[in-house]
């Protein structure tokens, strides 16, 4: 591992998270590739990580606690991405979450009929690839690497502070 301070690693994680969110919105709104529900869920850890990195910078004496929260966020990210990858590769069947629409938007039977007439994006369908890898595959790799780095930072935290 590089000899960087914890804050430097957190800045890198912030930048990776920001780049991931911007890329996801660019692919969705500029390139026109619609995400499935799991793809949308996979964005949540990146948003949370940016908030946690900012909180870590503000509340420096709670840095170890925020590191632990970041580890949990990226473990969740790794798990949800692995599950999604399993659906893409036919290891798992699609769950009901893949077909759910936002229930808050459905307020009348006309709205319900509109929702039913729209094509739902399947979690199994890969609509966008980079270097032959689905975005879910890339997310698995990124989440796993960040989790490993965070675990190393957390384990060496006390040594670095002495």
Keywords for this structure?
mainly alpha, 162 residues, 2 strands, single chain, Bromodomain-like, 65% helix
Walk me through what this model shows.
There is one protein chain. The protein has one domain (6-161): Bromodomain-like, CATH 1.20.1550. The protein is elongated. Strand 1 and strand 2 (133-134) form a beta hairpin. Helices cover 65% and strands 2% of the residues. Helix 3 packs antiparallel against helix 4. The chain has helices at residues 6-30, 37-41, 44-58, 63-88, 109-117, 135-155, 157-161, and strands at 129-130, 133-134. Strands 1-2 form a two-stranded antiparallel sheet. The protein has 7 helices and 2 strands; from the N terminus they run H-H-H-H-H-E-E-H-H. The model has no long low-confidence stretch (mean pLDDT 84). By secondary structure, it is mostly helical. The protein starts with 5 loop residues before the first helix and ends with a helix.
Identify the CATH architecture. Up-down Bundle
Sheet with most strands: 2 strands, antiparallel
Global geometry: elongated
Order of helices and strands: HHHHHEEHH
Brief sketch in words of this structure:
With 162 residues, the protein is mostly helical. The protein is 65% helix and 2% strand. The protein is built from seven helices and two strands.
Record the SSE blueprint.
Elements: H1 6-30, H2 37-41, H3 44-58, H4 63-88, H5 109-117, E1 129-130, E2 133-134, H6 135-155, H7 157-161
Antiparallel strand pairs: 1-2
